[in-house]
Amino acid sequence: MLRKRGVDLRKLDDIEKRLRDLTEPLNDQSRGYEDIFELLEDLRETVLDYQKIQQTDIHDQEYNLITPDEAAVLDGFRFARKAEFRYSGHRGCLKGTREDVLDGIELWTRDPAKPPVYWLNGLAGTGKTTIAQTVAERVFACGQLGASFFCSRDFEDRSNIKLIFPTLAVQLARKYTDFRSYLVPLVRSDPGVADESLYNQMYKLIVRPLNKFNISPVIIIDALDECQDEEPASAVLSILGQFVSKIPEAKFFVTGRPEPRIREGFRLPMLAEVTDVFVLHEVEPSRVDNDIRLFFGHKFSDLARRRSLDDWPTKDQLDLLCERAGGLFVYAVATVKSIDKPSTNPRKQLNLLLQSPESSTREGKTRLTGNTTLDLLYTSILQEAFSDVNGPDNDPMVRSVLGAMILAANPLSPSTIAKVLGLDPEDVFPLLSLVQSHLIFQDQDIDFPVRPFHKSFFDFLIDPDRCTNQRFHVFPPEHHLQLSIGCLNLMDRTLDRNMCRLPDGVANSDVHDLKERIRKFINPALQYACRSWHSHLFEGPAVSLAAPQITSTLRRFLERQLLLWLEVLSVLGAVKNAVNALQAAVGLLKESPTFDLAHDCHRFVTGYFEIISASSPHIYHSALVLCPTTSIIRKLYKTHAQPFMRVVHGVPVSWDSNIAAIARPFPIYLAAWSSCNSFIATSPYSGMAVDILDAMTLQRLQSLKCPPEMENSAESGALIFSPDSHLLTWVGRSDQHVYIISWDLQTGGVVSAITHHNQKFYTMPNVTYSNDGKMIGVSYSYSSDFMISIYDVVSGIHMYNIQHDVHGGFHLPGGRILAVWTHGEFLRVATTEPEPITIWEVRFTPRANFTLVETLYVPDILNAAIVIAPTPLATYRIVLRRKHEFSVWDTGDSKFLLRQTNATSSSSFKFTFSSDSRSFVSWDTGSEVYIWKEHSTGYILHGKLKSGPEYSTPLLSPDGKSITAFGGFMLRLWHTENLPTTPSSPTPQHDEDFVLDFISDGPSAVVTRRKDNVIVVLDLESGLPQLTIDTGMEVYGLKVIGNTIAVIAEGEVVTWNALGRKSLLGTRMGPEGSTQTITFAQPLDDVLAAAISPDFRHIAVADIFQTHLHNLSDGQQFDFPKTLDNSLWFAPGDNTLWLANADMVCSLPISYEGYDVPESHNIEHAPRESPWRSSLGYEVTNDGWVLSPEGKRLLMLPPPWRSDASLRVWNGHFLALLHGSLPEPVILNFEP
After folding, report:
1. Coiled coil where (predicted)?
2. What sign for the dihedral angle of Cα 430, 431, 433, 439?
């Protein structure tokens, strides 16, 4: 049967013959035993081959059972395509080598009593991946292998930690029918699970299905140290430790160097106790040397047979090679590869290598013992390989090609290297083939990605102390710059419009064959250039010196190729690369004439990031059309715009200071900056759905979930990142409990969930982390009492309380807490007693006590509200605030750094400082935000900005370079440089939304800003004002019926006749020629919206508490609690009142007898002439797309323009956007 299964027949015949021979009497007993052992090994290998074939058939049969629909779902999932062992490109162990190690691992895989995790720990070059490949092959042959992931820093997907669990899940689904029956529906309903936290990925994709179906696979993860991971302890290992006990049937085999994060990961208590560890570099040297000798003997015997070499190599030569290998298999492999080449004479090549002097050297950062000559081996091979290259004139090309090969962000093929460097592929391919013994290299395939066989070759080439021959030394800054300029030149030569041949108007997600189009029309070299030119340009200190060389290249690229480059990044899903590139370019070109252009490009990409990411065609249909009229981009590329609509009125004239904005699906209640300035966390009022946003684009990176038992149980109180930005802690409260949830940001998993019973102290807490990120201090205040609690973040243990107003234990005097912060190993707190500012401290250790540090003297403190900000120098900045003024006192120099009078008329003026206290912002509700920065004379006004809607809260980044403001559904981002300034003191300002209605008898619209008293009639052809009416009152709403303009003000409805645009200014005319005064039963409290029915009989007004209905005919009034948010309107042609928020509408039929209970609808059931639909069938989706009646994507609205459905008005082809953050209402005409 074995013969029929395709097993090597010669091997079977040989085994059969040797079995017959062994039946003869054994003359030499010891030799007979050796023969038996060797025969058993061959028999085992043959059976293993058979099992592999059998399992391959089973795998193929299972794969054939996958339906086309299931295959489409799995193929569309985001995972690493060639990460499993069959695609790793590695060979297994040579027969007879590593047997002790492999036998131990095989025993572990088969013994249920063994721990579920096995760590193969080894230094670089000790053969971990070769062993992992062999283990994978053997476990696969036995039918135990569920999935494998061979990590590699050379491939973007195989070094992406976020793809490990999705990739393992897809492989498990292809092997196990039950697993597939779970995964396919999950992915179909929630394809974004691949982008969720590692915690959610592991739980949803691996743990739940394995447990549900009692599947017991072996899962292999090789070279985990080659995955990008910024955690102190490996994020994957942290997650594995949290879940491995919950999937007892599964076993995980992991290999990795003993780097700190891998070592710390396996030391985690939850993982250490369930892990077997085998240290390869601690294996007895004689055993490793014997395996290396076997490897040399086998490879050289095969080479001697093929090349007819007699008595080669000699025993002395083998001894010397084994000695120089020093226990490193990488040395042995590199030696064989350098000798076994068709173009070399093996005898001569071996002699040359052995003539190299011995040396003690190091590999990477690890010094190896013994006479290891890895560096000399590399040097000797390079010198021999390029000995015939035409003189030193070709050395620059040699270095350029080697530099491109080792410094590329991901492996490049010879053809791609040639295109990027502007060389002939026929020169690059032969040059790389000369050193193929150091490379993973495919003969005769110029498009095969090439990479170093081992990281030690990369380390050798870039280290001048190791690569002492300057012909081959690669100086990274020089070659990074060369690669960057090469990429820019390649894009300049080859980029073209709509390279993927996408239809007009589509979103990228609409194109089902987008990946095939990318492969067909955008070659790998151009893809690489578009993704990576900036990563080379800004690598290393030499870039600033080369700035004059690249300025002209950059300017030409931005002036000619910007939009074409963005097209490619859009379809590649890599628009964030453009943000990073342009941000770096702005910094590099700060003193250059090209700065304004680079800055404008950066504003374009950040301002329209969502549009560019969602649709390559809408770069021209939407982003370029909405671009400010005076922007450089608009002027350079205006002929490229392809609008599906006409902007009638309101396109911004210039960029404002708002860099980016995003609309969240829920009102934002809390926000916090990370300590590293890279992330922003947001939280709603309750529910603990905390989102982590990218601080450059405001795009959501992940959503953190609390334990199910704690959902919706508390009001959000505080958000804080740990000092290293690896953890995020949320603190909330209810009437009797304090809730503290901490997440690991790399994994997304809950580190600890603390519920602390506390009946008395339930005001908003202040929170601070200890400097090591292991503990937090939380302070609570109520009236004149307060308490401070210390918690261990990882264990969730409540360490102790220190509070005022208790008997016994640790306590502080009374007073109010001003601030809580961390100082060295201490938690510090400032209180108002016994002196107005008293500083206390306590160690972050169990059962510590507070001690008095100092009392601060501040002049003129009496009757002032106090804000205290510590500085890194252990001094303080004290803000003294009174009505109409504030001042800032520096305790270090004992002087005022700022005295600001006439600052505000409100007592609610607030302040927040940067982490070094060199910057702070001041603001008041409804006013502009002011940014102050420290100079030699004190704080001076650095800039001001509009904070957005009323009640928004600004936050300064720790480095003082950025500021966010959140309020309602919106979050906005500014950079503090280049903000407008004024020498005057702050002036209150209102950003009220606009109110608008269309005049049906002609192409006109009537508009005003809410609470303003001036009405403007706009011509919809020209966009210019035709008539201005001063109403003399604050306007809350208006309605145009026929030629009558009805204005809703507080207490009355006033109408004007707009017929012919000839009404006398201010003439009041009602339907019967009079003004109608209305009196509401309850006083109006901050009117949000108002509407009038088409028959002029009813008026509806919504304030922050209620919706009021008033019958203008008989004066009857009905009030009901506010059902939904700001939007309300009457349907055309009847008296149904509609109310709306972001995702729901309510209809309320009105009659003379009153009204019925509002009926809720999903937004897809909203009527025409609502904020979502026009009477002609145009539609606005919740994600900002404006669709034609046929469903074509006409426009994508930027986030600030779509944040609130109540601020949209349709009229036929016209759409008005009425957001108060805009300088003018935007009116768009979609008429074909």
Report:
1. none
2. negative
Residue 524: half-sphere exposure toward Cβ, Cα within 13 Å: 15
Q: Convert the pLDDT of each residue in 156-192 to its tens digit.
A: 888 889 899 999 999 999 999 999 999 999 998 888 7
- Least confident among 520-524, 822-826, 1011-1015: 1011-1015
Beta pairing partners, 963: 956, 974
Q: Name the pLDDT band for 906 (thresholds 50, 70, 90).
A: low
pLDDT tens per residue, range 1149-1170: 766 455 555 666 665 666 666 7
Does an H or E element contain 571, and which? helix 562-572
Helix (H, G, I), strand (E, B) or coil at 1006: strand
Report the alpha-carbon distance of residue 1018 to residue 1229 in Å, rounded: 14
Neighbours of 184 (CB within 10 A): 20
Kindly provide the b/e burial profile for residues 656-677, where b requires at least 16 CB atoms within 10 angstroms of the residue's own CB.
Answer: bbbbbbbbbebebbbbbbbbbb
Task: Classify residue 888 as left (phi > 0), alpha (psi -120 to 50) or beta.
Answer: beta
Other C-beta atoms closer than 10 Å to the C-beta of 213 total: 15
Token pair 């058993």 is found at 40
Q: Which two tokens stand for residue 755?
A: 């519920």
Contact 633, 600 (CB under 8 A): yes
pLDDT tens per residue, range 194-249: 878 788 899 899 999 999 999 999 999 998 988 877 666 678 888 898 888 888 78
Long-range CB contacts (within 8 A, 24+) of 510-519:
510/1193, 514/571, 517/571, 518/571, 518/572
Q: pTM of the entire structure?
A: 0.76
What are the respective helix, strand and coil percentages of the chain, to the nearest 5? 35, 25, 40
Contacts of 870 (CB under 8 A, 6+ apart): 819, 821, 823, 828, 876, 917
Strand partners, 800: 790
Most confident of 118-122, 538-542, 1220-1224: 118-122
Question: Encoding tokens for residue 1011?
Answer: 């609470």
Whether pLDDT at 991 is above 50: yes
What six digits make up the tokens of 1224? 């003018």
The neighbouring-strand residues paired with 1127 are 1140
Query: What residues have CB less than 8 Å from 146, skipping those under 6 apart?
Result: 168, 171, 172, 175, 176, 215, 217, 218, 219, 250
For residue 971, give the nearest of 741, 679, 1206, 742 by alpha carbon. 679
The residue type of 585 is A
Closest CA to 1090 of 1081, 1103, 1080: 1103
Q: Which stretches of 59-109 are assigned E, i.e. beta strand?
A: none
Asked if residues 1054 and 1075 have their Cβ atoms less than 8 Å apart, the reply is: yes
Tens of pLDDT, residues 394-450: 688 889 999 999 999 888 999 999 999 999 988 898 888 888 777 777 777 898 888
Residues 823-829: contacts with CB under 8 Å, at least 24 apart: 823/870, 823/874, 824/771, 825/770, 825/771, 827/768, 827/770, 827/777, 827/788, 827/790, 828/853, 828/870, 829/779, 829/788
Tell me the pairing of strands 1117-1121 and 1127-1130: unpaired
| HEC profile of 651-681 | CCCCCCCEEEEEECCCCCCEEEECCCCCEEE
Rounded-to-integer distance, Cα 981 and Cα 1121, Å: 43
For the beta sheet containing 1193-1196, the strands, ordered from the edge strand earlier in sequence to the opposite edge, are: 1179-1180, 1185-1187, 1193-1196
Between the alpha carbon of residue 381 and those of residues 339, 384, 387, 822, the distances in Å are: 9, 5, 10, 56
In angstroms, the CA 1028 to CA 138 distance is 85
Tokens 């080439």 identify what position? Answer: 461
- Tell me how far the alpha carbon of residue 390 is from its chain's centroid: 48
In sign, the C-alpha dihedral spanning 91, 96, 97, 99 is: positive
Instruction: Output 1015-1021 pairs: Cβ under 8 A, ≥24 positions apart.
Output: 1015/1045, 1015/1047, 1015/1056, 1017/1058, 1017/1061, 1018/648, 1018/649, 1018/1227, 1020/648, 1020/649, 1020/1214, 1020/1227, 1020/1229, 1021/648
